[in-house]
Amino acid sequence: MKDVLTANNLHANTKAADNTGLNPALKVLLLNGSPKVEKSNSLHLAKAFCNGIKETCKADITQLDVYRLNIKDCLGCFHCWSKTPGICCIHDDMEYVLAKILESDIIIWSFPLYYFGIPSKLKALMDRQLPLNLPFMEKDSPSGAHPHRYDMSSKKYVFTSTCGFFTAQGNYLAVDEQINHMCGQNTFTSIYCGQGELFNVPQLKKRTDEYLSYVQKAGMEFITYTAISTSTRKKLDELLLPRQMYESMADASWGIDKGNINAKSFTGASPISALKGTSPEHVTSTSGSDTNTDKKSLNQNIKPAKSRSEHSGKGLIFTKQMSALYNPSSWTKDMVLEFNYTDINEKYQILLKNNGYKVIDSDFVKADTIIETPLDVWQKIGLGELDGQEALMQHLFSVKGDFSVMMNWDKYFGIGTDEGKKPDKYSESKASNMNLLLIPWIFIWIFLSINPYAGGISGILLCSVIPFAYIKYRGTLFEYISIFSVSALCIMAITGKPLIYIIPLSYMIFGIIWTASTFNKIPLTAYYSNNDFGGIKAFKNPLFIKTNRILTAAWGILYLITPIWTYFLILSGIGAWIGALNSILPVFMGFFTNWFKNWYPAYYASKG
Fold it and tell me: Which Pfam families does the entry mention (predicted)?
């Protein structure tokens, strides 16, 4: 690397900067010790922690990817203690790393857990810190130690890591012991998280984002209080998924049938013969014979493992992993989902029960919902590379049978909460209530015809009370327009304007509100029917919007033509009954709406 500073020069420069009395940005060094570099699961934690630091103070953060650096192993020659004090005899990128360690206020170590320890190259970096110590024995250490060459007392250490087990508890004991020796007993802050692979699973982003929001909060608290609060620590210690669900996903990901595991499962040979390989040049047997006479390589001896996907179909692994996300609390009745992967000619079923699920790969039963899709399409949807609703609109897959499962997919297979997540445009907790839209109109249609003055006064009072309902319910623009319109019509009635114009006009205005909303991004009925389809997130479902646009247009047309016969009915002398007469068609339209909102999505999805 260019512009490498030696440890001594850097320490002198740092002290000089301190003496100027300036208040520079906090210097943070992030050591990314994962071989996956930027694709590291553990790095998600470290970056979230750094975001918390940056939100709290001015910080200059440097990230070093250890596996991209040229760092050789320590030779144990102790030149850095005797011949060149403080300077390693190996001239590689470690010179730069040591300089950054000395100049940093906070050092964050990020790494995955490898065999209950740290990755080998990060361990090499840890070993190469020897120049930062003096050779003498620390007299006050209970187990023996070497004192620091420089004053390191003000530095803070943070360790973030993920592992593949369902929990971090009990799996970092060896790591913690090593860190205690390196940094000092209990002088560091750590965030260890099990189920690390989930941070790269798009389907679980809601849950992992929630967790990362608490890691970010931990970073903020670390700067403010130099510690993580008990409440935040409690959140960090929570499992991302329940143990059984996670381990089912993890086991399925390997594509191996646990019931058929034995010593020859992967190699077709005994373990000893399979691992014999080619002996290194300098190795000889105890009898003195040269073991290099066996020139078979390890790759020649070991046969490629046959995965479960090769035995039972490559769609099975994916189906099992998807099934593991099933949320039994969503159960209302036993259901059978069938997946026909058309591109690989494989079929599997998932039986959803109140106490769990079962994947069926033979002896199939009658399915409630059948999804016909290329495996590639469904995998892309699962990975977040393809929007499921857009794919359905483009007929990339089809659904036959009970479509309610698709409309409530997140309810059955959704994991996590919205806690800790920034709200999006539509993120409101209150539900809408269509009665708040309808009641003012129904009131004037009935009572203005009976007594215009009393009905007008009562209508205005009713409109003034409705806003109090928004304490409990989410208001919509259409309700605000209705309150204004109904109040204006009531004033017209109170001031003696003819009902023969007011009543038809009211239906006309109501019809315009409905019809005009069909040209909006979200039509009127969608603001209310979303309560039955997962809430306001249904606004992002194009098929849901299309269905509601059709329904809104149908209702709008009904109310646009209603003024025609209303006018003539009033002329005929039966105006007092106009509200009751005009409610007949809406009753039938209500039945049509309840049928259409379920039929049309299922019909559209079945077209394929």
Answer: Flavodoxin_2 (PF02525), SCP2 (PF02036)
- The Cα–Cα gap between 35 and 118 comes to 11
pTM of the shown model: 0.60
Count of helix runs (H) and strand runs (E) in the chain: 24, 10
**Length of the chain measured in residues:** 608
Question: 18-63, pLDDT tens digit by residue?
Answer: 444 445 788 999 999 889 988 898 999 999 999 999 888 888 889 9
State the number of CA atoms in the 13 A half-sphere of 129 facing the CB. 17
At the second CATH level, the architecture of 314-413 is: 2-Layer Sandwich (3.30)
Cα dihedral across residues 29, 35, 39, 43: positive or negative: negative
- Helices 205-225, 42-56: axis angle to 10 degrees equals 50
Beta bridge partners of 400: 370
Digit-coded pLDDT (tens) for 511-563:
999 999 999 999 999 999 888 776 777 788 888 899 999 999 999 999 999 98
User: How many other CB atoms are found less than 10 A from the CB of residue 513?
Assistant: 21
Q: What residues does each domain of the chain span?
A: 7-240, 314-413, 435-606
Q: How far apart are CA 544 and CA 288, in angstroms?
A: 78
User: Given 3.40.50.360, 3.40.50.920, 3.40.50.150, 3.60.10.10, which CATH number is that of 7-240?
Assistant: 3.40.50.360
